[in-house]
Amino acid sequence: MKKVAIIQARTGSTRLPGKVLKDLGGRPVLQWAVDRARLIPGIDTVAVATSDASADDAIKDWCDSYGVACHRGSEDDVLSRYVVAAQAEQADVVMRITADCPFVDPQVSGAVLTRMLRADADYAANNLPASWPDGLDCEVMKATALYAADQDATRKLDREHVTPFIKHNRERFRVVTIGCLIPGLSKERWTIDDPEDLEFISAIVSRLPKEGEPTWMDVLAVLDAEPDLRKINSGLTRNEGLAKSVKAEPIPEKRVYDRSNNFLPTAESRIPLAAQTFSKSRIQLPQGQAPLFLTHGEGGRVWDVDGNEYVDLIAGLLAVLLGYNDPDVNEAVEEQLREGISFSLASKLESEVAERLCNTIPCAEKVRYGKNGSDANTGLVRIARHVTGRDHIIGCGYHGWQDWYIGGTPRNAGIPKAVRELIHLAPYNDIDAMHKMFKDYKDDVACVIMEPMNAVWPREGYLEEVKELAHKNGALLIFDEVITGFRFANGGAQEFFGVTPDLASFGKGMANGMPISAALGRGDLMKEMEEIFFSSTFGGEALSLAAAAAVMDKMQREPVVETIFKRGTAMQEGAHAAIAEFGLSDLISLNGHPSWLILTVNDHPTARKEAIKTRFLREIIRSGVLLAAAHDISYAHSEADVVQVVAGYREACRVTAEELNSGKLEERLDVPVIEPVFKVR
User: What is the spatial distance between Cα 667 and Cα 645, in angstroms, rounded to a whole number?
Assistant: First the structure.
C-alpha cells in the first residue's frame, strides 16, 4: 500500500500573490511544507500538485531543483489535479496538505493517517470540526474515494476544494476524525493567506529553536510566551476561500433525494412518520422534493443522506443556538465524557449550572432540570396548581406535548375530556380575551403560562398588563422561554422586555442541541419541588449540563445574541426585498424577533396559503436553504449563509409568482400540500 502526501501549491493567490515561494526564515514557504511532510510517519512519498498555468512554472522549477516530484493539472479543478498526481504516483492512500501551512505537524498528520488506516475508513481529517489550530489541517483518503469524487462531483465548490464531496457524502464514504486534546485552540491561525499572516508566521519563526524541525507545541510555546503576537493577524477569519466559493455556488436545476426517498419505507416500518417529532417528519416538507434524513452538521449548515448541502434555518427546532459542532461545546462534552455521564448521586455540575442560571435570568432563584421544554412547563404548572389550590390554566403559545396543554389543541387524541376542559388558550396581545377567561373561571385559574413573544411583538404594556391581571386574580405568571431564552438576551425575553415572571422554563438552545431544560423561578415557589413530584433519572445527566455551562460561558464572553440579531435582520431585510421584487408582499412575510422569524403565508384568490407555502418551500429547499416554519438563526450563520438565503428567497419568489400568475399553482403542484399539525401562533 503506497501512501503519498500531495501538497497543493500555486502562485496565484489574490490576497498574497506568490505566497508559497516567499521567504520564511531562510527557506521558501513551500519548502517548509515539503520538509515537514517528508517526516510524517507512514508516508512513503511526497509530491507537489500545481497548476498548468504559466505563473506556476516557478513552482515546477523549484520542485525540480529541490528534488521533489511535481505534477500539473487544471488551475481551477483542483480535484482533477489531485487525481493526476495520485495516478502518477500510483498512490493507494492520499494525504492532502496545502503549501500555505508551513507548520503542518508530522506527528499530528501521522496520527490522522493512522486513524484512517486502523478504522479502515475512506477518509480521515483533523478539522471536522475544527479543534486544532488553522494551519495544522490534514486530510487523508483512499485513492478509490478520490477517484469516485472525481467521477461524480459536479459542483464547482467540490472540485475547487477537493474533498467536500467525500467528507459530506457520509452514506457513501466512511468518515472518521481526530480531535485536539488541548481545548480552545481552534481559533489559532497558523496559515498564510494574507500579508498579516506572513508577518505573524515570520515573527514566530524568528523565535523558534534553530535546530531541527519545530513541533506544533514549540509554536504554541512561543505564542503563550508572547500572546500579543496573535494580534498581528487577529482580524482574519478561517476558511475565507471556502466561504467565497460557497457564495459563488449557483442554484442547481434539481436536487436528488434518492437515498432519502428509498430509506423512508424502512424507517416508517418501525417509527411512526419515520421521525420523533411531527415537525421533523415528511408531512411538514414537500414530499419527495426535500430531504428526510440528515447525516451531519457544521456551523450553520447540514448535509442529507444524498450529500446535499443546506443552510439550515431549522437548527434542530431552535436547539442549535451556537451552530453545529461548536468547538467550545464539543470540548466541554468530550471532557465530561471522560469523567462520566450519569451518576448515582447528584454532581457539583448541577449546582454550578444552576448558579450560572440564577446569576443571568432575572426571575431565577432556584432551578430544577428536565430533558425538554414539556418537562419544565409541566413541572411549573404543577407548582402553580399546588400553591394556588386551583386547576384551570390559561395558555398562550405552544407549551409542549403533555396532557394539561395539548388537550386544548386539535391534537388532543387520547386526552381525557376532564383534562381538556382545564386549559384555555388565549390569543397573543389580546388582554380582553384574558380578562374574559379570568371572569369565566374566577378563583379557579392557577396560572397564566405564555410565550412572552412569538410571531408578533407585544404591544406596549401588554406583558405588564398580563402580569398585573394574573396577580390581581391570585394566579401566577409563567414565561415559557424554551425558545426565547438565550435568543432575545442572555437572560431571555424577561430581561429583553423588562418584565419578570414568577416562574419560567428554559430549554432548546440552552445546551446547543444536548437534551436539557430548566424549570426555575422564585425561591419560595421552587422550594415546593421538595414536595411536588418532579423527578427524572436523567435530570442531572452530566454531558448536557457540561454543554449548558459551555453555552452560557460563551454567551458571556462573545457577542452571541448581538450576532444572531444581526444575521437574522440581514436575512429578513434581504428576504423582504425579494418578496417585494416579485409582488408577493401581501402574501409572504417574516414576522417576529430576528433570531426567530416566523414564515407567514396568506391566501391568494387562486390558491390556498398552504399550497403557496408548499410551492415556496419546494423551491427554496432546491436553492439549498432548509426552511420549514421559521428562520431559526444560530451564532454560526455566516455572511455567506445570508447571501445564500437571500438568493434562495429570490428564486423561490420568482417561481411562486410565476405559478400564481398562471392561476394554476395548486393544479401544477407535484407534491402533497403541507398542512399544519395545528395552529398555535
Answer: 27
- Four-way CATH pick for 258-324+561-668: 3.40.50.1820, 3.30.420.310, 3.90.1150.10, 3.40.50.620: 3.90.1150.10
The per-residue pLDDT for 237 is 76
Give CA–CA dist 354/349, Å, rounded.
8
Give the pLDDT of residue 567.
98
In the three-class reduction of DSSP (H, G, I as helix; E, B as strand; rest coil), residue 54 is classed as helix
Hey, which residues does 28 pair with through a beta bridge?
23
Residue 640 CA, chain-centre distance (Å), reads: 14
Domain ranges of the chain: 3-247, 258-324+561-668, 342-540
Say how many C-beta atoms besides its own lie within 10 A of residue 48's C-beta.
28
Cell of 446: 392557577
Residue 450, phi then psi, degrees to nearest 5: -150, 150
Prior bond of 227 cis (ω within 30°): no
pLDDT of 678:
79
pLDDT (0 to 100) of residue 587: 97
Task: Look up residue 227 and give its DSSP letter.
Answer: G
| First-to-final CA distance of the chain | 61
Q: H-helix or E-strand containing 334?
A: helix 327-337
Q: How many residues does the chain have?
A: 681
Query: Nearest 10 degrees: CA dihedral of 11, 13, 18, 20?
Result: -80
Q: Are strands 596-601 and 630-632 parallel, antiparallel or unpaired?
A: antiparallel
Question: 435-463 burial, b for 16+ CB within 10 Å, e for fewer?
Answer: eebbeebeebbbbbbbbbbbbeebeeebb
Mean pLDDT by 10 residues, the chain (681 residues): 97 91 97 98 98 96 98 96 98 98 97 98 95 96 98 94 96 95 90 96 95 94 97 82 67 88 96 94 94 97 97 97 95 95 96 98 98 96 98 97 93 94 96 97 96 96 98 98 97 98 98 98 97 93 98 97 98 98 97 97 96 97 96 96 97 97 94 87 78
Interatomic CA distance for residues 603 and 584, integer angstroms: 11
- Residues in contact with 488: Cβ distance below 8 Å, sequence separation at least 6, in sequence order: 453, 495, 496, 497, 561, 593, 595
**How far is it, in rounded angstroms, from Cα 32 to Cα 651?**
46
Pull the grid cell for residue 244: 467565497
**pTM for this prediction:** 0.92
